[in-house]
Design goal:
mainly alpha; 2 domains; 22 helices
């Protein structure tokens, strides 16, 4: 065994061991990197140097702003407005409140960009509401947690910014535009699954559709939806960068939450800012540590070796695409979303581009795979939040979620094998693929 192979085994072996032992992920990444640097005979000063390089990026400045925007809008009385808008649009269907849950998640995801925030905010309102109207509690929870993953795809998503930076400067605007149709495909897939179950269980449907009611709720929700327009239209139109749009959106969300919807007072604003700092500290330490980890991967030629290994299994692009999804799904079961994006992207992106998958399309694939991982034990953060909100055992929620896993996998396969789902909107707006 040569020195390079030994260092690779130390890096990946120690990392996986600590993950399975439930070390905090940042510690797992950092300790395995230190052990690898020692085995390679490198100076340990390489670690802080690479950590600083990892966070020394103008694009990453958008991350704290998007997190802050999501927290302020999520706590500022937005949820009720978006639920009412979704109800006026799809509440008339069989299983209407399930449909409302899914559509509201699409709207809310465009504001929060967080599946966890979606589940906590919408779930605390919709799950009790659904149960009161005759829906089973486990079904209500399953709909809530699976639909929350739409928010990871619908812009503005800070995870998209992290992927764009990790993948080597891919346009954030292109990724934002790429997320709309996949998010809609996921929503439609979940709605079909919900409708089938609702018909079998004879769940209720709401009042008939009224264009007057819809327009009224649309006008009421205008201030919330306008935040999305500020970010997306501003970035796509070239008015300002993603970072600048995020900063403007924070100011806008503060004004809307405090002065228009009045869901927050100044004490609540400061409490939310404290929460943002806690979240941001976790994200940034992961980014910094993962940059040093990525340095070791590159130094040891792991991406090239991984590409050779995967392509040696099969030369078929279909089989390789399925393998990439399988790897990401398995990683999602044992790791959180940000570290998967940071660690797996440098390894798997060259394989994906090698079989003709665009970096933008692969970004959508990796985010959706990670979203499914958020719903699977043992590290399914959104699964735990949904169980806590509904006060149900995790095992019961997982069982009720099984049909929706199938819906999500169908959406994932469509996104994987029909590139235009991800690429049509970016190409329409002139982004290079």
């Amino acid at each position: 065994m040569n020195a390079e192979t030994l260092s690779t085994l130390i890096l990946l072996g120690s990392f996986l061991l600590m993950v399975f032992l439930r070390f905090p992920i940042a510690y797992s990444v950092g300790i395995s990197t230190v052990l690898c640097l020692i085995s390679m005979g490198e100076q340990l000063t390489t670690l802080p140097t690479q950590m600083v390089k990892g966070v020394w990026s103008f694009s990453l400045m958008a991350v704290p702003f998007f997190i802050t925007m999501g927290v302020l809008m999520g706590s500022g009385g937005i949820s009720e407005k978006l639920i009412a808008l979704a109800n006026s649009l799809v509440g008339w269907m069989r299983g209407g409140l399930a449909m409302v849950n899914i559509v509201a998640s699409y709207f809310f995801g465009g504001i929060s960009g967080s599946a966890a925030a979606d589940t906590a905010s919408l779930g605390s309102i919709l799950i009790p509401m659904m149960v009161d109207q005759g829906y089973d509690a486990d079904f209500s929870t399953a709909v809530t947690i699976t639909s929350s993953c739409e928010g990871l795809l619908v812009p503005p998503s800070h995870n998209m910014v992290i992927y764009a930076t990790t993948a080597g400067g891919i346009s954030v605007g292109a990724l934002f535009m790429a997320g709309y149709l996949p998010g809609a495909i996921l929503a439609l897939s979940l709605m079909v699954g919900s409708y089938i179950i609702s018909v079998k269980r004879n769940y209720p449907k709401g009042e008939k559709f009224s264009i007057k009611s819809f327009v009224k709720q649309l006008l009421t929700s205008f201030w919330a939806l306008a935040a999305i327009l500020i970010v997306v239209v501003g970035v796509v139109g070239g008015v300002f960068t993603a970072t600048e749009s995020a900063a403007i959106a924070v100011i806008y969300s503060l004004i809307v939450s405090v002065f228009i919807y009045k869901g927050l007072n100044w004490k609540g604003v400061w409490q939310n800012l404290e929460h943002c700092i806690e979240t941001l500290s976790i994200v940034l330490i992961l980014i910094a540590m993962s940059a040093a980890f990525g340095y070791c991967l590159t130094k040891l030629h792991v991406p090239a070796k991984a590409a050779t290994l995967i392509t040696s299994i099969s030369s078929s692009p279909v089989v390789i695409a399925l393998l990439l999804n399988l790897i990401l799904l398995v990683l999602g079961m044992i790791m959180d979303m940000a570290p998967i994006i940071l660690i797996a992207t440098p390894i798997l992106l060259p394989v994906a581009t090698g079989i003709g998958i665009s970096p933008i399309q692969f970004g959508i694939m990796i985010v959706l795979n990670c979203g499914i991982g958020l719903l699977t034990p043992p590290v399914g953060a959104v699964l735990f939040i949904g169980s806590a909100v509904a006060k149900l055992p995790m095992e019961k929620v997982v069982k009720a979620t099984l049909p929706f896993y199938l819906c999500m996998l169908i959406a994932l396969l469509l996104i994987t094998f029909i590139p235009q789902i991800s690429l049509w909107l970016p190409s329409l707006f002139g982004y290079a693929m």
